[in-house]
Amino acid sequence: MQKYSTLLWFLAFALGLSFDLLFWDVTSPGVSFLIFSALTLTGGILLLWKGQIRPARNTWLLLAPIAFFAFFTFVRLEPLTAFLGYSLTLALMGILALTYQLGRWPLYSLADYFAGFFRMLFSLIAEPLIFQTQVNKTKAETDPVEKPPSAFWPVVRGLLFAIPVLAFFTVLLASADMVFSQRIDDLIKLFSLEKLPEYIFRLVYISILAYALAGLLLHAAKPAMDEKLIGLEKPLIPAFLGFTESAIVLGSINLLFASFVFIQFQYFFGGLQNIKLDGYTYADYARNGFGELVTAAFFSLLLF
Q1: How far apart, in whole angstroms, are the C-alpha atoms of residue 130 and residue 150?
Q2: Do 96 and 194 have their domain in common?
Q3: Exposure of 121 by Cβ count < 10 A (0-12 exposed, 13-18 middle, 19+ buried)?
Q4: pLDDT greater than 80 at residue 235
Q5: DSSP secondary structure string for all residues of 263-280
Q6: What is the share, in percent, of the chain residues with pLDDT greater than 70?
Q7: How many other CB atoms sit within 10 Å of the CB of residue 251?
Q8: Same domain as 128, residue 99
Q9: Which of 50, 161, 231, 269 falls 20 to 30 Å from 33 in CA-CA distance?
Q10: Does the pTM exceed 0.85?
Q11: Which residues contact 213 (CB under 8 A, 6 or more apart)?
Q12: What is the pLDDT of residues 13-48, one digit of tens each?
């Protein structure tokens, strides 16, 4: 990835800037979240692909649930459902980055996920610094001793000459056209000192987010190694239930789920007359409980 270090930082800051544009002063961030997730995944995969880092086959399978939960962040406005949509989308994107090259996420235990996310957290903090240090060291070793003259001072001199010329023509054009004059006034107000703290704050969190995104991409780009999963050969927590006890627990849950589905058929095919609760419309019934069902499905997977 050292070959594409400039492209990496450009992408990271572009994503940070897009986050600011999509979420600043936005009250309902559902659509913005979907767009930002799509931009992050697309940009990250394309950059890694350009660096000859290919995702595993199982990694592609994660894109479907990511798109599903990101889509529901603005389709379902219920707070619990929206929260689950945001949380599960971010969690699945983290799993994608964690298992990008090997795609062994189906084999991970909870201990593997916890250990992997701690490693990824370390990468978010330290990996960009380590990466940039290596890039600078490589450039110092490969660049010739005689460096070309710096372009900094010519740029400064050019700006010093350009500013008064631009100011002169701007005044003339603003005097000639009222609409252009109004746009210039709006531009000047945009850079007023009253908003300077806001701009500084936004620049800081854009930089922090860009740094973290760069660390996430670098973590996904680490050389793939045949990692030894925790508990794959010997479980981290020994089994404390026998076959009979496990069968009773899982069988009871299956019966509960089966009875729940059976009851749903009555309402799905029976129409409005089957809903007996006062003030409870068929539309309310159809929409209600989605978040709780997603939560139940999540904990069912953990139980499995």
Answers
A1: 26
A2: no
A3: middle
A4: no
A5: HHHHHHHH-GGG--STT-
A6: 77
A7: 10
A8: yes
A9: 50
A10: no
A11: 11, 12, 15, 16, 40
A12: 999 999 999 998 887 787 899 999 999 999 999 999
pLDDT for position 40: 95
CA distance 1 to 50: 9
Beta-carbon count within 10 A of 211 CB: 19
Instruction: Say which amino acid occupies 211.
Output: Y
| Tally of domains in the chain | 3
DSSP state of 222: S
Rg for the chain, CA atoms, rounded: 27
How many residues are listed for the chain in this entry?
Answer: 304
CA-nearest of 64, 122, 56 to 92 is 64
Looking at residue 41, its pLDDT comes to 95
For residues 5 and 9, give the distance between their C-alpha atoms in angstroms, rounded to a whole number: 6
What token pair was written down for 130?
A: 């380590």
Joined together, the tokens standing for residue 121 give: 């957290």
Tell me, yes or no, whether 133 and 160 share the same domain: no
- The 10s digit of each residue's pLDDT in 123-174 is 899 999 999 888 888 877 776 555 566 666 677 777 777 877 788 778 887 7
Q: What angle do CA 228, 231, 237 make, to 5 degrees?
A: 155
The alpha carbon of 285 is separated from its chain's Cα centroid by a whole number of angstroms, namely 32
Integer Cα distance of 274 and 262 in angstroms: 14
Distance, C-alpha 269 to centroid of its chain: 39
Residues 179 and 193 in one domain: yes
Domain holding 158, by residue range, is 154-199
Type of residue at 155: V
Q: Between 87 and 195, whose confidence is greater?
A: 87
**Residue 148 has what DSSP assignment?**
P
Amino acid symbol at 184:
I
CB atoms < 10 A from the CB of 261, how many?
10
Please tell me whether residue 60 adopts helix, strand or coil conformation.
helix
